Structure of Dihydrolipoyl dehydrogenase:
Amino acid sequence: MVVGDIATGTELLVIGAGPGGYVAAIRAAQNGIDTTLVEKDAYGGTCLNYGCIPSKALITGANLAHEAGNAEEMGIHADPVVDMSQLRDWKSGVVDQLTGGVEKLCKANGVNLVEGTARFKDENAVRIAHGGEGQGSETIEFEHCIIATGSRVIQIPGFDFGDEPVWSSRDALEADTVPERLVVVGGGYIGMELSTTFAKLGADVTVVEMLDDILPGYESDVARVVRKRAEDLGIDMHFGEGASGWRDEDDGIMVTTETEDGEENEYRADKVLVAVGRSPVTDTMDIESAGLEADDRGFLSVDECRRTDVEHIYAVGDVVEDTPMLAHVASKEGIVAAEHVAGEPVAFDSQAVPAAVFTDPEIGTVGMTEADAEEAGFTPVVGQMPFRASGRALTTNHADGFVRVVADEESGFVLGAQIVGPEASELIAELAFAIEMGATLEDVASTIHTHPTLAEAVMEAAENALGQAIHTLNR
Ligand SMILES: Cc1cc2nc3c(=O)[nH]c(=O)nc-3n(C[C@H](O)[C@H](O)[C@H](O)COP(=O)(O)OP(=O)(O)OC[C@H]3O[C@@H](n4cnc5c(N)ncnc54)[C@H](O)[C@@H]3O)c2cc1C
């Protein structure tokens, strides 16, 4: 112990108050565990402060402005003016409300909150450095620990986030003006959500992506619907190009890219947003002092209860290897770890992890694709319902995309679904539930769905797989 250290003890120490950590801390406290939660920055982590919530708030504003200004067909004539700094303040208000709520919930559940940065001293103690000059430090000894330190943006050579025209997703979400020209490096889900948002807010957007399509990991027909809409919004997309640098010009900046064959291209911009992924935060905590070792990308491996190789130390959320970096995954893992600490017989079953992309239109996926099902040895049967055949989709004037349901032909069990279209992020929940409940196509198809709703398209896709669809031709 260093001079001035105060040592305290806790049954469970949770490091990081993002959706993995704060949820774990609350659930542990609910189970009667003496729990301490340490956070170095802001309650709610990346998700509430710099990720899911502010991005969706901005998307809502951009959609509203864009819709209002593009509804002549319906006889609505408007030319909305977006006050970006007011939109940012509104977004920040939403964030503050939620982060304040997290703090209150933790306190109300009896979680002991500590502000500071944790580093392991050994496998049963951390030192907490409190922020700011002369704030000192303390040692906390623990019986169990949950590491929930999340992730940070990946920086690429030639693009320093400290440079004013270079934006991380966090900078983009704090913008108080809309750049006239924005180059987005990376066509993954964060890059495409923000490209669409800024295009709708009036920026001239160019996306450069090293691969040959946007949204890697999603099926090509799903990505195609989003790409087509992005093109219609005027987003200029260039594939097979890696961003290599930028330089100041009289009028803004010039972003340079390079193809695999060494061909160089240049794009004028006012800002360049780098969104090429995130890496786990495991390198700032002296994890070796606790006997832990991360893999070469920084991830921690865990068992089904989220225990690391050091049995009383758990890891959840973005630091975990093999599970997607998503807020709801972090929270579920947090609950599993907390309940395991409390002695409950729990395990993380990632059979059906839904994911959503808030592009235009949205994407929602869960479970297996047809190809996954084949690879897993099933004989898949697939049903699809296009939104252009949905009455409700047409009444919202958003009828691009489809619902696809994948099931096992023999048993009828629903194995997966892919939705691209209006409210896909909400609709996917029904199919996640279906998979979790072991529902069959028959169960989904024979459930009465309210009319007129987008959810009817889910029912109709299941009917289509059974050869019984009414509003689309059966295969
Ligand atoms: C722009 C953007 C949009 C996103 N949109 C979505 C979305 O729509 N849906 C979705 O599911 N996911 C989304 N994500 C991903 C989501 O934010 C993360 O998956 C989620 O936040 C991970 O939660 P976590 O608890 O593991 O970590 P985090 O939320 O990153 O929280 C970790 C916390 O640990 C703290 N910490 C780190 N080290 C220490 C230390 N040594 N001591 C004390 N505290 C420490 C950090 O300050 C941080 O608050 C988005 C991310 C971004 C960037």
Observations:
- Residues 84-108 form the longest helix (25 residues).
- Residues 15-21, 38-41, 45-47, 50-52, 55, 117-118, 148-151, 169, 190, 281, 284-285, 317-318, 325-328, 330, 358 surround flavin-adenine dinucleotide (CB under 6 Å).
- The chain has a mean pLDDT of 96.
- The two ends are 71 Å apart (CA to CA).
